[in-house]
Specification:
mainly alpha; 0% strand; 5 helices; single chain; 87 residues
Length: 87
Amino acid sequence: MIATVLLDYVRVPAGLLVRCGQNPMIAYTAAGYVITPLLTFVDCAVPLPWLWGNCGCAMAVGRSVIVTLMMIFFTAAFSRHKLFWRI
């Protein structure tokens, strides 16, 4: 509902969201099969206790926002290069 109000009435540019909507299969699998393993490898190289540890609700929300933003940029890059995954 908030996205509808922002996109229709306030006229916020929605380029990244539109690109994610054009390529939903990449968007669905990017977080689980690309972003999370990459963050796990980064955690092995550089210790990031806030990434996977028990650090409270605020850090979990922050971690979710980071993973979601990375998924949006990943999917938008595939859509920009016209690499679509459709069934």
